Amino acid sequence: MKSIGAAAIAATLVVAGCSSNGNADADGASGSGGGSVGKAVSHKIVGIDPGAGLMAAAERAVSDYGLSDWTLVEGSSAAMAVALDKAVKNEDPIIVTGWTPHWMFAKYDLKYLDDPKKSFGEDEEIRTVARLGLKEDAPSAYAFLDKFEWTDADMAKVMASVQDGQEPAEAAAAWAQDNAALIDGWVDGIEKGDGKTIKLAYVAWDSEIASTNVVAWVLENRLGYKTELMQVEAGPMWAGVAGGDADAMVAAWLPITHKDYAEQYEGKYEDLGANLKGTKLGLVVPSYMDVSSIEDLKG
Ligand code: PBE
Fold it and tell me: Which keywords, in A-to-Z order, does the entry hold (predicted)?
């Protein structure tokens, strides 16, 4: 498997918006209501890559809840995880943009802030999207991609291995070997491909690193294809599939998070349906913070 730009994940360890003064006063550290949470975190929300739908949703929340004095800090998934890790180790207050499935909920004691205005939406799924013509050009790859569906528990195992330091391709291979029966079901009745290279676009979100590597493993080891993993930003991922430069991606969060991208390229891609159900997006804080709703952030 050829992997492009994987090192970029490690290269973006910029610590964003992490204040360490939270222990100075009890009120600030616990972040109890009445505007003190804002002070405790310097009115900063630690975001991820600017192309993520999660960032658009967080901007929506800032506007919906009247948080005009707050800043949503751009960065990357990796930088957000570093900031969160540092804060939790010091029991500092921090607010990050988060999503499920993600390993951070297993590693730390965290909670989503309530979102009564539903700025982050609800009832969403991760879908597989293919370029037009893939069905004719690589029918076996297409048939498998159409069939591919797993659970957040499956994905969590791959994510945890990567988080523990395993290379994504190795973590995917180990998971595949432990879950051969599930994979049998995905490829059941599908003939081997013709050795063509299937190009998979993805963004360096932990969830999508896991799914894309598992899909690549199956294409290579069960269906005889070669794969090329193209790590890009969210906009180019959609543009790549719509323009035919990428064959497919398994990272389309719909109907809400990637709505703008889906509308922009409507008619230029094929939606193969859900590959994972039961996702969630929102603002996430360590459980030791005394705040429960985005509404509490005002002031
Ligand atoms: N995410 C993870 C993506 C989709 C997958 C929630 C960070 C996004 O916001 O676009």
Answer: Cell membrane, Membrane, Transport
SS3 assignment for 92-131: CCCCEEEEECCCHHHHCCEEECECCCCCCCCCCEEEEEEE
The number of domains in the chain is: 2
Give the pLDDT confidence of 98-115 residue by residue, as tens digits.
999 999 999 999 999 999
Distance 262 CA to ligand 1 centre (A): 14
* Ligand 1 pocket test, candidate residues 249, 253, 279, 280, most atoms within 8 A of CB: 253
Residues 39 and 152 in one domain: no
Instruction: Report the atom number in ligand 1 closest to the C-alpha of 56.
Output: 9
Domain range for 246 is 124-279
The whole-model pTM stands at 0.87
Q: Are strands 2-4 and 226-231 parallel, antiparallel or unpaired?
A: parallel
Residues 292, 265 within the same domain = no
Amino acid code (one letter) for 98: G
Q: Is 257 in the pocket of ligand 1 (CB under 6 A)?
A: yes
For 78, residues 6+ apart whose C-beta sits below 8 A from its C-beta are 9, 10, 12, 13, 204
